[in-house]
Design goal:
The complex is a heterodimer of chains A (371) and B (96). Chain A has 371 residues and is an alpha/beta fold. Chain A has helices at residues 44-57, 75-84, 100-108, 123-130, 135-148, 167-176, 191-195, 197-200, 204-220, 281-287, 289-293, 318-325, 341-353, 364-367, and strands at 13-17, 61-65, 88-93, 113-118, 153-159, 181-186, 226-229, 250-253, 259-260. In chain A, strand 8 and strand 9 form a beta hairpin. Chain B has a single domain, classed as Orthogonal Bundle (Arc Repressor Mutant, subunit A), CATH 1.10.10. Chain B is 38% helix and 21% strand. Chain B has helices at residues 43-50, 58-68, 73-89, and strands at residues 13-14, 20-24, 29-34, 37-41, 94-95. Chain B is globular. Classes of the chains: A alpha/beta (371), B alpha+beta (96).
Chain lengths: 371, 96
Amino acid sequence: MSLPRTEIPAPLGLLAELTHRCPLHCPYCSNPVELERRSGELDTGTWTRVLSEAAALGVLQVHLSGGEPTARRDLEEIVAHCADVGLYSNLITAGVNLSRERLAALADAGLDHVQLSIQGPEAATNDLVAGLTGAFDQKMALAGHVRDLGLPLTVNSVIHRHNIDQVQQVIELALRLGAHRLEIAHAQYYGWALRNRAALMPRRAQVEAAMATLEAARSELKGRLVIDAVVPDYYASLPKPCMGGWGLRSLNVTPAGKVLPCHAAETIPGLSFETVRDRPLAEIWYEGAAFQAFRGTDWMAEPCRSCERREVDWGGCRCQALAIAGDAGKTDPACHKSPHHAELLALAEADSDRAPADFAYRGFATAKADA
Amino acid sequence: MTAAPALTEQSVPHLPKGVRLRYDEARGQWLLMGPERLFKLDAIGVEILRRCDGDRDLSVLVAELAESFQADPATVERDVRAFLTEFVTRGMVKLA
């Protein structure tokens, strides 16, 4: 059973992964372990067609991401096209190798917003996690250019064992950089991060201290800095409505043009994904088998099926259900009702108790030897 | 503590870079869009925000709305202040 087309809402957001190329090597990267090479990337004309189709479908905001989206030489054209078709454009960048002149050109093309990642609030942590010496200094310079050009800035930081005790410094840095918004995201343990879980998992006490710091700052800084932070799944008792519900709010287009309900959906075996090279975006959204697989509530088994929160959290994350419970159709183990909930917590506690492991840095060479 | 925006009769509200007012054809509604933020607007909200052009000050804005809606200026001013204070706090409207 799948939802009839009339009951499927139009998507609000599109994550456009323009490329998997990136100068950083963060060990929790949300890109798949099998990275797409440049030769497999969509060309400019295909991207602009996809963006037109997205706008017609009802998408309002486009997140230009990667990899590092500025690695695409045609980014100005892509941004200009977003503006032409009325899409709000958000550049998600590592802030490395992006000159003031190029940023100004992107702003002239109609860029609405910049989201800058930092891997730590000072050079030592940042550059260790990013796997690139000098990255922090380049990010600081870029933040200055963003401010000078009058573009709104979000600072984004992925939090884990190596920087979780520095959350207060991250907040202070965001304020110093003139950010309007700070996004604190705990590492999500699929793909690269799953491979590095033992090196990344924080202790429960660290998570609780960080959440308290963020909560205090959120009320103190109201009106100055918007702080968005989410409780990490491993120490949660209720699952998050992953993607706002599978196939209900947003979609993701990979560098090669595959259309996914979430960026990690390719980790789920048995799902097949269509590409924008073969089929219009709207048809894939409304009819694609991967989108219909976990859309709505008909796919659910117990305890989700009769749960009063089934249309609040939509069963949580399918990829995490697969990773921990062994079946993408089961309840997200982050939920206290899942029979695998205790196992999830035990995994986190065991990993966070280990001596810190070395990172398996993200990269083409790590995934495949034929670089 | 909330940093209350200083909204006076001479305040000139405008939408900063990165905030856009637009009509959403697909859903038939007006929206105020910002970074990871989306607000659905009613007809009055749209009329207020359309006038946040960096030109009109609060007193002009209130007078125009009272005129076009044939409403009591004091009531309009109270509503507009509450509306703008909310959006200024959220960083979606700036004051000059």
